Structure formats: structure tokens, C-alpha cells
Amino acid sequence: MGVDIKIEHLTKKFGSQLIWGDVSLTLPAGEICVMLGPSGTGKSVLLKTIIGLLKPDQGSVVIEGVDIASCSEKDLYEIRKLFGVLFQDGAMFGSMNLYDNVAFPLREHTRKSESDIKKIVMEKMEMVGLIGAEYKLPGEISGGMRKRAGLARALVLDPEILLIDEPDSGLDPVRTSFINQLFVDLNAQTDATFLIVTHDIHSVRVVPDQIGLLYHKHLAMFGHREKLLSSDEPVVRQFLNAQTVGPIGMSEEKDADELAAEKDMELPPLPPIALQLEPSNGIPRKRQRPPGEWCRENGVVPPPGSFTADAEHGVASAGVATAEATAVAGVPPIQ
């Protein structure tokens, strides 16, 4: 059973450099959340702050009534037992083989027998496709395999909160799709709270329940997936649709001359909102809302062609709304 994470007015600096300031959001219990942002905007710093590896300069991170930002080391140790963490580089112990790396949390935090540990470790390694590699050292395998081994280790204690930093880096598109499906299946099985940092736009469009975007030292937006995927907010629209037109430039922000030159440029239409991935067994997750429900509740007309199988595969027309699409979405067709 997942728990919610309440973040209020969070600010983090390194010396005089502000990473982000006054960040406030709630990660709902049991939902899959994704945090986006241009490179260097502090997404990994946010994950490390949530788990207490870094202390914020201001604000709070409250989990089960405990403020991670100000609690004692003893309380922090106990709260961390709720977490599973997949770091960006896998964070493997170089002198241990993959089996021992994955088994480490079980040996450190439980009194399970070695036979029980072996059963759990092999189950998790099978889930991430590493059977046969369990006795290899981290230095003997690819970065993608190290990432998958890190995921197996994050899962062995059946955490209530999973923090996942760029799970798709180093993975080919096929294995990225497998990992996405695995996250959805795990959430359905455990009802754990997920926070995933990623740059993979396809994953963002089909996996999460909630999406957030860090930009220019603040949280630009956080909310239901349909809210952001139908948003005309310039930075949100640009990032989620991988467009060159908008406030984000090669060095994060464009200068005034670039923005002025784009002022009268016509933006391409928003692509259709894809259907969310469903668990492999076809049974919707507890926290998964029906397609188009958020749009209906908030009077938002989604991009034409949304919430169809065609939209999921990126082949629906962005310029024509079909009767079938609008019926599924539950909103009036665009005339």
C-alpha cells in the first residue's frame, strides 16, 4: 500500500546557486508520478532530497507524519525502509556480483534465511531480465544491465515508495517498453507510490497518472496527465511535445531576440493524448482513472483523436477529431 508524499515550499541551494525554490506538490498515494525538466534543473536533486540524502534549505517533505527535512537520524532510518530507490547509474557495489548486490537490502534489513533470500532475489532478477547474469560483476556488464540490476535491488523489500531516476537511460526502445510495462504491473500489484524521473517522452505519454515539470528553478506545473498533455502553457507544451518553438533553448532559456523571432510563428497542433498502459492482466489499476475523465470534469477539450489505440501508437491525425475518439473521451467533438 503506497503512502502520499507532501512537499511544501521546498528550496535547495548549493552555496549561492539556487537549484529550485518554493516547490510544493503532493505525490498521491499509490499513483505513478513522473518528473520532467531540461537537463540540469535539479530532478535528481529532488529525488535525493525526498529520501533525505540531501537537506533542503527551506520547506518540508512529510511522509507518514514525519518531516524528512527536520527529523532525527533514527526516524529518517525508519522512514527510509518504505523506499526503494533506483539511482541514475544503478549504484552497484563494484566488488559484489549482481546476486549479492540485489540481496544486500535483504541481508541488511531482514532476518530471512539464505534460501528465502535466494528465492526473492531470483524472482526480482527474472522480472528485469537478468537470469543468467547473477554472478557477473557490475564492471562486466553494460550500463543498461546495471540499471536493471539496480531496479531488482530496489524491489526486493517490496517498498511502498519507489524513486526511479532515468530508468530508460542506457536501454534500447524494446527494453524501455518492457520496463514501462513492468512499472505499471508493479503498481497494480503493490499499490506503491512511484516517482520517476525521465526524458523519454513516449514513456511520459503512456505511463504516469501525474506529471510535473521543473523549469528555470521552479516547478512550472504538476497535475493529472491529461492536464499537462492538453496544456497550452508554453514551456509545458514545448517540452512534452519536443518542439523547438518555445521558451526552452539549448542553454535552458532562449534570449529575447530568439523569443521575439518566434512570436508570430504558428505552433504545430497538440498531438492526441494516448491511452495509458494497462496492467498485463487487463485489470485497471486502483488509482487509474478512465480515459478523458479529467478533461470532462474540468471542461477541457482534449486534442483531436485523443484516447484511441491509434493515438497510443502515434498515428492518429492531430488535425481531425473522429466521432469515435470524442465518444471515448466523453467530450463534445471539435467543429
UniProtKB/TrEMBL annotation:
A family per Pfam: ABC_tran
Region (Disordered): 273-311
CDD domains: ABC_Org_Solvent_Resistant
Residues annotated as domain ABC transporter: 5-241
PROSITE patterns on file: ABC_TRANSPORTER_1, ABC_TRANSPORTER_2
Gene Ontology molecular functions: ATP binding; ATP hydrolysis activity
Key words of the record: ATP-binding, Nucleotide-binding, Transport
Name of the protein: ABC transporter ATP-binding protein
Source species: Nocardioides baekrokdamisoli
